[in-house]
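For this section, I looked closely at the sequence of one protein beside the tokens encoding its backbone, which the following lines show:
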Amino acid sequence: MAAEKMSLSKAINASLRTALESDPKVLIMGEDVGKLGGVFRVTDGLQKDFGEDRVIDTPLAESGIVGTAIGLALRGYRPVVEIQFDGFVFPAYDQIVTQLAKMHARSLGKVKMPVVVRIPYGGGIGAVEHHSESPEALFAHVAGLKVVSPANASDAYWMLQQAIGSDDPVIYFEPKRRYHDKSEVDTAAIPGPLHTARVARPGTDLTLAAYGPMVKVALDAAAAAAEEGKSIEVVDLRSMSPIDFDTVQRSVERTGRLVVVHEAPVFLGTGAEIAARITERCFYHLQAPVLRVGGFHSPYPPSRLEDEYLPGLDRVLDAVDRALAY
């Protein structure tokens, strides 16, 4: 099949369809994923084509959804569960952290846990409370979980394929405000490793590292900086656990400066770990301290104020200017 331009949400749908067609042990579970096709219509048409035994509308019980998926995985299935919104994952946090993440180690490697937990996350859609959270650092901190987030349709398709094929549990964060962004998807391509970062835009003066919804902001910032003669390299991290520090290190060794951007609060966020590791690895290459740009250490605000809360172009460019001023 030739490359096709599709939205990020359609790419996820296509990836789920491919997985269902390829392996009868793949199941999809979640609230309203079947008849409705999900609140974002990401699973639209899948129950109609594959039946209610494979695309399963569940009760409104996140802990039960994940707990059932763990049992199915023990029986040889590969469940893909959807948490309807980021803020709804916490009733399932116990199951994810104390059971899903630990089963492989607890069984001394004998038990595999091929479960994917899909979570639409982040803000920018004008939603109400509990619908715009960025809890990725909570899961990245848990040993035994893989945590990833695509920034474009091609990665959305391929990273989900790789997540479903993994024998370890994967938390798959979907940047919901990018659902309608379109890009080319080649479903016949050979993808790179799931946890490898990519250089989305080369540059020489400073490295901007981001993932998920913030990659587009980073690319826009690099384009704006280029108009002022600044050459910014953008690294799409793609994975928050494990993190591809080698790619970031190689970039920083070339540019001498690093700014890390994410929607989640800066305090104890993913950027803190990246800043610490790169400072250790690149101390003699750095020409400025590693700077971080993210949300504030406060509950996510009402939608009228989210533009003030979310890191946008101006805040990223301010950090770029501060780093370049050293």
Summary: The CA atoms of residues 25 and 75 lie 10 Å apart. The longest helix spans residues 8-22. The chain has a mean pLDDT of 97.
